[in-house]
Amino acid sequence: MASRAGDGVASSPAARPDAIRRHNLALLLGHVHRDGELTRAELTARLGVSRSTVGALVAELTALGLVEESVPSGGERVGRPSHVVGPHSHGPFAVSVDVDVSQVTAAAVGLGGTVLSRRTVPTEGAELTPGRVADLVAESVVQLDGGGRRITGVGVSVPGTVDKRTRTVGIAPNLGWRDAHLGALLSDRLGARVPVSVGNDADLCLLAELSRGNARGCDDVVYVVGRVGVGAGILVNGVPVRGQDGRAGEIGHNVVDAAGPQCHCGKRGCLETIIGDAALLRLAGRPGESTDDRVAEVFADARAGEERAVSAVRTAAGWLGQAIGNLVNTLNPQRVILGGSLSGVLEIARPEIERALARYAFDPGHPVELTAPRFRTDSALLGAAELAFTDLLEDPYLTTPGF
Fold first, then answer.
1. What is the pTM of this model?
2. Domains plus CATH for the chain?
3. Cα separation of 272 and 256, whole Å?
């Protein structure tokens, strides 16, 4: 029954027209950002509004410099073709940063996930302090070519636990960080007008794959990333699992062999000491600095049949299958995405992974999909960009002037 004034029944205020318009602007921009060029007809069907409303929304987003329209030419269609709406070729960009033990990569990323330019700084042998990372990010923000575009924010991926509220890295053992106030350091260098977000690398890999990669359409998925460290981004019932202060998913520090190698975290036999990049190199008889190039050489030699490289990959695959079995028993995911160097292990030694998974899973016949990420080694970088675009995608009127 409808309430009447003075009858003592509280009623919720109706949404204001400007709030509805901004909501619809965000919806439309989100579709174009995730899926690229879409016709007005497709947008009308997706938003469930009239053609004239879509036309007005597109006009407004065009005026904001966020989308642009084109009219397809040619083809066999009869009649007037529907306008195609896509990300603006000179719209705002995000600076995304992927911090790894051996290098720091920064990229200018446009709407739609287009990498406009990138800058990689090797850091082997150098102390990679939070202050040093903040300096490198600040330099990259200035040096990356946005083509005169507006910068909408900076997103940073780190291999450690992250409290998103405070933008603090709680612990990153492979970097030697504890309670690092990375977000505050970046804001000090970049100024208040540039929003800064910080996230865990595995969580951001998953975010990229959810946005437009191999996790789309899945409500229960785990992304396991293997580099020097090993971590997992987890989605359960469509909700990211991060824990009370960002420490969920640190599967690399589950002890699998108490007599195993010493880990950076202080324990022995953590999973990352068995299947991480350093472990692959050690098993292949190639101790030393863990770099992408050296790990790639192990995989290349394994593909060529070099005995020790093949043995190293197969050994890692067995341990990886056991770890996935434990994840399946705990989380019951539909899909497990294996990123970083673990993609190479999956490519070369899938049978070994699947045998171990069948051995350790509670129900060996229950299906779980194993796949590589769509974006390969760029998943963390593109996930950091998604983090930086969050505010703009929620409210297209929130744009930040460029430098």
1. 0.90
2. 17-87 (1.10.10.10), 93-204+380-394 (3.30.420.40), 214-373 (3.30.420.40)
3. 10
